[in-house]
Amino acid sequence: MANLIQYAKDQVTECTRRAYEAAAVAGVLPAGVELKGSVEIPKDPQNGDYASSYAMAGAKAMKMNPRAIAQALADHMDLEGTIFSSVEIAGPGFMNFRLGSKWYGDVLAEIEAEGRLYGQGQDGAGQKVMVEFVSANPTGPMHMGNARGGVLGDTLANVLQRDGFDTWKEFYVNDAGNQINKFAVSIQARYLQILLGEENVEFPEDGYHGQDIKDLAQGFYEKHGDSYQDVDEQTRLDALAAFGLEHNIPKMKEDLRRYGIEYDQWFFESSLHQSGYVAETVGMLTEKGWTYEKDGALWLKTSDLLKTKFLAEGKSQKQIDKLELKDDVLRRANGFYTYFAADIAYHRNKLEVRGFDKVINIWGADHHGHVARLQAALDGLGLDGSHRLVVVLMQLVNLLQDGQPVRMSKRSGKAIALHDLLDEVSVDAARYFFNSRSSTSPVDFDLGLAVREDSENPVYYVQYAHARICTLIARLAEEGHQVPAAADIRAELLSTEEEKALVRTLARLPDEIRAAARDYDPSRINRYLIELAGDFHRFYGACRIKGEEPDVLAARLKLADSVRSVLANCLNLLGVTAPEKM
């Protein structure tokens, strides 16, 4: 479980500390100075594998020229038994360290030892984290907007788990409230049109106009005939909503399963209302003094909660006054609780009842204004929502077809359904493309590019690298060359820049996973895969394997197999297959 890049940085620091102590004993450097500085990886390998700034950082305290300090440190540096082969002085006082062959061999040994878990970390330390994503209204088919949130949430949960978090994937089913009422009203209009004729029943302007609504109405008619024609409207709407949900929710599960997403739980909003949990949560806010009544409704003192939150975060009163904060209705005058009230209750359930240390929601960017309000409400309940609720806001998807944008409107019935997309492109391509940019950037999904079988298609480019290595290993096996154990190769033979660059990229995976988890940005894994595949293709073009002298062949074959393992490892994190043949 070693992070060999961090290990190298730590060893630079330790070697420098020992060199300083030796130089101080020799009287070359003043004693008693605390060494400060940093260790970085230079962009240009000509400047070494690791560069430290300790000499420059110590110049003021030592009252010496940085290069003179660097020279004294280098003169007293003992690299025997370390992973470094040399150290040299550059520029105003940088100390550039070059790795020895042992480190390159250690990277391959680590990959071999950890296998599919290579890159795992322990930053999460077993913390319970829920990732809630998609959570679409069950009023129609899964669409393109859900497709990006689905792969973003699923991959983020995978990355967090690899970094040591105890993760839970959840879908929140909004099966109550205004959207469900509109859903039922839309089906009702189509149902009555079947019974009475389209010309005799007006369809609501703000209803759902899609073909799926017509299909549901037809299905309801085929099951119940005209038996719901003359009942009271609420009875009819309840039956239509139940029928629609019973049809749509299994289809959503099926679409997401086809997309490679399985949830630990589908949580129903209706359960919060039926159990009285929403009413209980609102009552708790009232007990704590965060509500008031006005015009027959119960309001949350959102503006006061937000002021408290923003002041704690360091905002000035002047900045807060510019925000024009407003309060929110929790319970309407008709006695019905709002969606916001249910949302507060749901998140209280996550944090208080189920005990998640942190909850992460994947939301569309249009929900930006809702984030601080929900966090503040949870703060009001004493649940520290400002720190325990993390919302990853996701920008839109731009779908292109023949170079032209494809319009997506659920209301007009022109939405691009997820199952339609997956009929056009592979699940692998869809998952890879939708995770190819950070959540803060829009994604242009080019249908033409997604089905191309060339290096311009990034998922093909990465998968081809994996398949190419599998073919190479199979052919060499036919000639009697098996992939050796890391302990049995001569790592010093991996001496070309292409070979070293490839090993250095392999060594970066633990840092990439850690950063992806820290920043809630699983697209880092996509970018890493492109870089690793590119480094492999350059290595394969420059360094012959088949027909080489046995020790060289063995070392390069082990390197290629290590790349294969890491490519498969990362593709698995993305939910993308690693084909052996293409």
Features:
alpha/beta, 15 strands, 582 residues, 5-stranded parallel sheet, 24 helices, 4-stranded antiparallel sheet
How does this model look, in words?
This protein is α/β, with parallel strands linked by helices. Mean pLDDT is 94; it is low at 409-413. Strand 3 (84-90) and strand 4 (94-99) form a beta hairpin. The protein contains 24 helices and 15 strands. Helix 6 crosses helix 22 (509-519).
Number of separate helices? 24
The low-confidence parts are 409-413
Q: Which structural class do the helices and strands define?
A: alpha/beta
Number of E-state strands? 15
Sketch the major β-sheet.
5 strands, parallel
Q: Using only CA atoms, what is the Rg?
A: 30 Å
Q: Return the average pLDDT rounded to an integer.
A: 94
What overall geometry do the principal axes of the alpha carbons give? flat
How widely separated are the two ends? 32 Å
State the oligomer.
single chain
The proportion of residues forming helix, as a percent range, comes to 40-55%
Strands of the largest sheet, in order across it? Answer: 7-6-5-11-12
Strand content range: 5-15%
What is the gist of this entry?
Helices cover 52% and strands 12% of the residues.
Q: What is the strand and helix layout of this fold?
A:
Elements: H1 4-25, E1 39-40, E2 50-52, H2 54-57, H3 59-62, H4 66-75, E3 84-90, E4 94-99, H5 101-114, E5 128-132, H6 144-162, E6 166-173, H7 178-196, H8 211-224, H9 233-258, E7 265-268, H10 269-274, H11 277-287, E8 291-294, E9 297-300, H12 302-312, H13 317-321, E10 328-331, H14 339-353, E11 358-364, H15 368-380, H16 385-388, E12 389-394, E13 397-401, E14 404-405, H17 418-424, H18 427-434, E15 443-446, H19 447-450, H20 458-478, H21 497-507, H22 509-519, H23 523-542, H24 550-574
Helix pairs in contact: 1-4, 6-18, 6-22, 7-8, 7-9, 11-14, 12-15, 20-23, 20-24, 21-23, 21-24, 22-23, 23-24
